[in-house]
Amino acid sequence: MKKAKFKDLKHEEQVLVIAAEEARKNAYAPYSGYKVGAALIADNGKIYSGCNVENAVYKVPHAEENAIQAMASDGGREIIIFCCMAENGGIPCGSCRQFIWEFCGNDPSVKIIGVDSKGNVHITTIGELLPYSFGPKNLGIDPKKH
Protein backbone atom coordinates (compact mmCIF):
# COMPACT_ATOMS: atom_id res chain seq x y z
CA MET A 1 0.00 0.00 0.00
CA LYS A 2 1.33 3.42 -0.85
CA LYS A 3 0.39 6.87 0.34
CA ALA A 4 -0.45 9.66 -2.08
CA LYS A 5 -1.88 13.16 -2.20
CA PHE A 6 -5.17 14.02 -3.90
CA LYS A 7 -3.36 16.32 -6.33
CA ASP A 8 -1.16 13.41 -7.46
CA LEU A 9 -4.11 11.23 -8.47
CA LYS A 10 -5.20 10.87 -12.08
CA HIS A 11 -8.26 12.90 -13.06
CA GLU A 12 -10.58 9.85 -13.05
CA GLU A 13 -9.30 8.90 -9.59
CA GLN A 14 -9.93 12.43 -8.30
CA VAL A 15 -13.47 12.23 -9.68
CA LEU A 16 -13.98 8.97 -7.74
CA VAL A 17 -12.71 10.49 -4.51
CA ILE A 18 -15.14 13.39 -4.91
CA ALA A 19 -18.02 11.01 -5.69
CA ALA A 20 -17.19 8.92 -2.58
CA GLU A 21 -17.04 12.07 -0.48
CA GLU A 22 -20.45 13.20 -1.76
CA ALA A 23 -21.93 9.76 -1.10
CA ARG A 24 -20.52 9.81 2.44
CA LYS A 25 -22.49 13.00 3.12
CA ASN A 26 -25.68 11.00 2.51
CA ALA A 27 -24.78 8.14 4.86
CA TYR A 28 -27.47 7.18 7.35
CA ALA A 29 -25.52 6.14 10.45
CA PRO A 30 -27.59 7.00 13.55
CA TYR A 31 -26.36 3.94 15.49
CA SER A 32 -22.61 3.88 14.87
CA GLY A 33 -22.08 7.46 13.73
CA TYR A 34 -19.52 6.02 11.29
CA LYS A 35 -20.27 7.41 7.84
CA VAL A 36 -18.77 5.77 4.75
CA GLY A 37 -19.00 6.68 1.08
CA ALA A 38 -17.84 4.61 -1.87
CA ALA A 39 -17.60 5.09 -5.62
CA LEU A 40 -16.40 2.98 -8.51
CA ILE A 41 -15.82 3.13 -12.22
CA ALA A 42 -17.39 0.18 -14.01
CA ASP A 43 -16.59 -1.54 -17.28
CA ASN A 44 -19.37 0.47 -18.93
CA GLY A 45 -17.49 3.69 -18.10
CA LYS A 46 -20.08 4.88 -15.59
CA ILE A 47 -19.45 5.96 -12.01
CA TYR A 48 -21.57 4.41 -9.26
CA SER A 49 -21.60 5.48 -5.64
CA GLY A 50 -23.10 4.32 -2.39
CA CYS A 51 -23.14 5.05 1.32
CA ASN A 52 -23.78 2.99 4.42
CA VAL A 53 -27.40 2.84 5.53
CA GLU A 54 -27.93 1.56 9.07
CA ASN A 55 -31.20 0.37 10.57
CA ALA A 56 -32.57 -0.80 13.90
CA VAL A 57 -32.01 -4.51 13.18
CA TYR A 58 -28.30 -3.80 12.64
CA LYS A 59 -28.21 -5.34 9.19
CA VAL A 60 -25.95 -2.69 7.74
CA PRO A 61 -25.53 -2.51 3.98
CA HIS A 62 -22.05 -1.09 3.57
CA ALA A 63 -21.24 1.76 1.20
CA GLU A 64 -19.12 -0.56 -0.92
CA GLU A 65 -21.99 -3.01 -1.29
CA ASN A 66 -24.43 -0.24 -2.19
CA ALA A 67 -22.12 1.13 -4.91
CA ILE A 68 -21.66 -2.35 -6.38
CA GLN A 69 -25.38 -3.06 -6.22
CA ALA A 70 -26.07 0.22 -8.05
CA MET A 71 -23.60 -0.86 -10.75
CA ALA A 72 -25.11 -4.34 -11.07
CA SER A 73 -28.65 -2.92 -11.14
CA ASP A 74 -27.62 -0.79 -14.13
CA GLY A 75 -26.03 -3.74 -15.96
CA GLY A 76 -22.39 -3.13 -15.02
CA ARG A 77 -20.48 -6.28 -14.15
CA GLU A 78 -16.86 -5.33 -13.65
CA ILE A 79 -15.08 -2.79 -11.44
CA ILE A 80 -12.21 -0.89 -13.05
CA ILE A 81 -11.23 1.31 -10.05
CA PHE A 82 -12.78 1.45 -6.57
CA CYS A 83 -12.66 4.27 -3.98
CA CYS A 84 -13.85 4.31 -0.39
CA MET A 85 -13.89 7.25 2.03
CA ALA A 86 -14.31 7.02 5.79
CA GLU A 87 -13.26 8.86 8.92
CA ASN A 88 -10.10 6.83 9.45
CA GLY A 89 -8.99 5.66 6.04
CA GLY A 90 -11.60 4.06 3.83
CA ILE A 91 -9.93 0.68 3.34
CA PRO A 92 -12.80 -1.82 2.86
CA CYS A 93 -13.57 -4.38 5.57
CA GLY A 94 -13.10 -8.10 4.93
CA SER A 95 -16.69 -8.66 3.86
CA CYS A 96 -16.54 -5.77 1.41
CA ARG A 97 -13.22 -6.99 0.02
CA GLN A 98 -14.94 -10.25 -0.89
CA PHE A 99 -17.88 -8.34 -2.41
CA ILE A 100 -15.49 -6.19 -4.48
CA TRP A 101 -13.56 -9.29 -5.62
CA GLU A 102 -16.77 -10.78 -7.04
CA PHE A 103 -16.86 -7.95 -9.59
CA CYS A 104 -13.15 -7.52 -10.41
CA GLY A 105 -13.05 -9.96 -13.31
CA ASN A 106 -10.52 -12.11 -11.43
CA ASP A 107 -8.02 -9.26 -11.77
CA PRO A 108 -6.00 -8.82 -8.57
CA SER A 109 -4.53 -5.54 -9.91
CA VAL A 110 -7.83 -3.61 -9.66
CA LYS A 111 -6.91 -0.40 -7.85
CA ILE A 112 -8.48 0.40 -4.48
CA ILE A 113 -8.21 3.99 -3.23
CA GLY A 114 -8.88 4.65 0.45
CA VAL A 115 -9.30 8.21 1.69
CA ASP A 116 -9.74 9.47 5.24
CA SER A 117 -11.67 12.55 6.31
CA LYS A 118 -8.43 14.57 6.43
CA GLY A 119 -7.72 13.87 2.75
CA ASN A 120 -4.98 11.29 3.27
CA VAL A 121 -4.96 8.87 0.35
CA HIS A 122 -3.87 5.21 0.41
CA ILE A 123 -3.59 3.25 -2.82
CA THR A 124 -3.57 -0.53 -2.97
CA THR A 125 -5.06 -3.33 -5.06
CA ILE A 126 -7.75 -5.87 -4.35
CA GLY A 127 -5.05 -8.55 -4.66
CA GLU A 128 -3.06 -6.97 -1.82
CA LEU A 129 -6.19 -6.69 0.33
CA LEU A 130 -7.48 -10.18 -0.44
CA PRO A 131 -4.42 -12.26 -1.38
CA TYR A 132 -6.01 -15.70 -1.21
CA SER A 133 -9.34 -14.88 -2.75
CA PHE A 134 -12.22 -17.22 -3.39
CA GLY A 135 -14.80 -16.14 -5.88
CA PRO A 136 -16.69 -16.76 -9.10
CA LYS A 137 -13.72 -18.31 -10.91
CA ASN A 138 -13.41 -21.00 -8.22
CA LEU A 139 -17.02 -21.94 -8.90
CA GLY A 140 -16.77 -21.79 -12.69
CA ILE A 141 -18.90 -18.65 -12.89
CA ASP A 142 -18.41 -15.64 -15.18
CA PRO A 143 -20.31 -12.70 -13.62
CA LYS A 144 -20.49 -10.98 -17.02
CA LYS A 145 -22.85 -13.74 -18.18
CA HIS A 146 -25.35 -13.12 -15.38
Topology as a string of helices (H) and strands (E): EHEEHEHEEH
**Uncertain segments of ≥5 residues (pLDDT<50)?**
none
CATH superfamily: Cytidine Deaminase, domain 2
Indicate how many domains the architecture comprises: 1
Strand numbers in spatial order across the main sheet: 1-6-5-4-2-3
CATH architecture: 3-Layer(aba) Sandwich
Number of helices: 4
Main β sheet profile: 6 strands, mixed
Structural class: alpha+beta
Q: Over the alpha carbons, how many angstroms does the gyration radius reach?
A: 14 Å
- CATH topology group: Cytidine Deaminase, domain 2
Please tell me what the overall shape is. Answer: globular
Report how far apart the termini are: 32 Å
How many strand segments? 6
- Average of per-residue pLDDT values: 94
Estimate the strand proportion: 15-25%
Highest-level CATH class: Alpha Beta
Percentage of residues assigned to helices: 25-40%
